Every structure is written in C-alpha cells, then in structure tokens.
Predict the 3D structure of the following.
Amino acid sequence: MNLSKWNTEELSTTFDRTHADQIASAAIRTREKAADAGEHEGVSPINFSRFTVLEMEGRTHVDTATAAYHLGRKPQTLRVWATYENGPIRPIRVYGRLAWPVAEIRRILSA
C-alpha cells in the first residue's frame, strides 16, 4: 500500500475514531455484562432481591451482608467495626458469626 497518496492527518483522524469506537464498544459490552450479572458499578456483586425492606424485617438481628445493605456500607466495613468496636453499632457474636440488631440499624437510619 502506497501511503504517499494518503493525507497523514486524515489517517490519524480515522485511526483515532476507530480506536475511540473500539473503546466505547468495549465499555458498553462491560456494562451489559455487569447488568446481566446483577453487578453495579463500584459495588461487589450482591443479590439485592434477597434483602427484606427494613420496615418489614421481622428478625431481631440480621447477618452482616443484610446490615451492610441497609446501612449503605460494604460488609467488610461492618466487620472492621465489630473487630475494633469503634462503629456506630455493635453486633453480638453467635457461634463466631456476627448478628447486627435491627433496632439499632433503624435508630441509626432515623437519626
């Protein structure tokens, strides 16, 4: 191919557009895959349909994932609160598992 007859600026612009289109297409595919998998941007993949609305919650204590969902935090944040006992809420430990009081979650959210 003889490039001497091609305008260099035109080649550069064509390449930039093609490259931009490829990047945009890859981003769209990634978002579609994340949506299909139930993932949200910046949030670990959690099945949000498994959580009960807090007003309808019948249990006195909930697990870490449920408490984190209602408090708008990641589960690891609540685990750190439990370890250092420095969070706004303290769990009880049941056979090595953390149980977070629903009444305290409601109190925090209403403040």
